[in-house]
Amino acid sequence: MFKGRQFTAEIILWAVRWYLQFPISYRDLERMFSDRGIQVDHTTLFRWIQAYAPELEKRIRPHLRMTNGSWRVDETYIRVKGEWVYLYRAVDATGQTVDFLLSPKRDAAAARCFFRKALKQPHTVNPRTVTVDKNAAYPVAATAIKRAGELWRFAKLRQVKFLNNIVEQDHRRIKRLVRPGLGFKTFVTASRAIAGYEIMAMVRKGQVAIALANEMKAQSELIAALFRVAA
């Protein structure tokens, strides 16, 4: 994974971990490196995030704790090349992240794709209740995946906006990380960075059994172990 890179794996993973957890820009991170006597350009940091954020998500997912069967689903907005796209997100009743999906559209097809993606994850269960807002696309999507046998046929869809406060509050965590970047240039670069934001948010919430919430040393050791490098 790190062959041919100018910097060591330890330095790269340190940069990736900090950028994905804290609201800093690439130029901020460049200055942080400079303060430690390491000269690395902000464009190089961007390439590291694009390369390693999706890989980090893939390697952490098998270690996530199981979420419960009460889902709170909502979508928020992310700007990509001057236009709004939609980030579908779900948390369970305790605030643990179920899954996420960046979509160019906000319709029944997009909602259906999100539900299918979430249901396939090893850390999720088929929900008994799915709480959503008044978006008319959700009942259509839920009916379609029930008919296909993917969603439990007795699962209850609740369109009660105030019950979704927990997921709406959780959007702030991701928005806070996106803001310093001043928007994304392409849908692909947005998808890769957001995958990193979301998976590190799960780590910080304590969704990985071997890395306690907000234990920075344990998180560093976890990521080093996943990439088989020294912590």
TrEMBL record:
Cross-referenced Pfam families: DDE_Tnp_IS240
MF annotations from Gene Ontology: DNA binding
Domain DDE: 70-207
Domain of life of the organism encoding this protein: Bacteria
InterPro entries given in the database record: DDE_dom (IPR032874), IS_Transposase (IPR052183), RNaseH-like_sf (IPR012337), Transpos_IS6 (IPR047930)
Transmembrane segments: none
Organism per entry: Microvirga aerilata
Keywords: DNA recombination, DNA-binding, Transposition
Alphabetical GO biological process terms: DNA recombination; transposition
Full protein name: IS6 family transposase
